Amino acid sequence: xxxxxxxxxxxxxxxxxxxxxxxxxxxxxxxxxxxxxxxxxxxxxxxxxxxxxxxxxxxxxxxxxxxxxxxxxxxxxxxxxxxxxxxxxxxxxxxxxxxxxxxxxxxxxxxxxxxxxxxxxxxxxxxxxxxxxxxxxxxxxxxxxxxxxxxxxxxxxxxxxxxxxxxxxxxxxxxxxxxxxxxxxxxxxxxxxxxxxxxxxxxxxxxxxxxxxxxxxxxxxxxxxxxxxxxxxxxxxxxxxxxxxxxxxxxxxxxxxxxxxxxxxxxxxxxxxxxxxxxxxxxxxxxxxxxxxxxxxxxxxxxxxxxxxxxxxxxxxxxxxxxxxxxxxxxxxxxxxxxxxxxxxxxxxxxxxxxxxxxxxxxxxxxxxxxxxxxxxxxxxxxxxxxxxxxxxxxxxx
Length: 398
Hints:
The chain is an alpha/beta fold and 398 residues long. The chain has 3 domains: 2-215, HUPs (Rossmann fold, 3-Layer(aba) Sandwich), CATH 3.40.50.620; 239-323, no CATH class; 325-398, Structural Genomics Hypothetical 15.5 Kd Protein In mrcA-pckA Intergenic Region, Chain A (Roll), CATH 3.10.290.10. Helices cover 46% and strands 12% of the residues. The chain has helices at residues 2-12, 21-30, 49-63, 94-101, 104-108, 123-126, 131-138, 143-147, 150-157, 164-180, 192-204, 241-249, 253-264, 268-279, 285-300, 303-317, 340-347, 353-361; strands at residues 17-19, 35-40, 67-72, 118-121, 184-188, 211-215, 326-328, 338-339, 365-367, 378-379, 386-389, 394-397. The strands form 3 sheets. The protein has a 6-stranded mixed β-sheet, with helices on both faces. The chain has a 4-stranded mixed β-sheet with strand order 7-12-11-9, with no helix packed on it. It has a two-stranded antiparallel sheet with strand order 8-10. α11 links the parallel β5 (184-188) and β6. α10 packs across α11 (192-204), α12 runs antiparallel to α15 and α12 packs across α16 (303-317). The longest helix is centred in the middle third of the chain and has 17 residues, at 164-180. The protein starts with a helix and ends with a strand.
């Protein structure tokens, strides 16, 4: 029982809620190895630092010897998770989904021991369901239960359309738990409704309901909305260490405390100590932020790359030594001049035209010191050209 209580307290750290706690304790008592499920839909090719919070909780279960299942939602991605959406998510093609999945394993491997993880795809069982199966599944839940979720209720109140297929998403995610016979499912707080649906359906299908564990959402670089690739406020696990370091240095001093807590596990007591030191001016916030950026990068990238990123940042932004900027090679056969958006994509500075438009129109893109860039600009690029994107990202064409 002592070990069970210790396990419970360890898992409870850095979570928002365990539902229900008594059921989790009973599962720990009854089974030596629990089946722990975490599902992610490959809606984009990059995972980001926000994903590492729930992945790190999954790693804790892995280190405790439980069976962890990393579920890739290749089927549910075709529906699109409506959680937190104000409008219908555009559907992805199978080709787009397969492209997005290509680097998932490498990125997940920055947190999990992928050699000891069970990797599953929900197309294995969802694509095999007949129409009769789907009707029977839908018969387990009322429409009133589905539309009581906050995002659906808001869209209905605002007279925003909701696709019938979107109402099926929670059922599909819940059915995943049935197929895997999950004991525990992890997810961010925005997934609470979907996770609870898994409990409901497991009970309907005669299984012991899973326990759900929710983890906090990480605010993006803007400090307002949750970290999201579609919002352009993210640090990708596919970023170079130098680019990741620069993005982290761009966050506000206020947001820094949140990152210290969620990504570096600084206790509330430790954070109060640091805040006191900053208030007393015995610790400069820039010094602390540099330490934070280095330590976060060192968690998910090789330590030598983290050290180089810190050195390069100081050379770039304090000594203006642009030779330390990320050197990006461009094929000489690339059209010249090139639309600014295509150039930014080649540099890896943006993920979409909409992100480029937002950055350009806010005056965040500078080329060789000039900031009079417009969205339709054609850029005559050349070797040695320096492009600055945002406050702390600088690229140099090689």
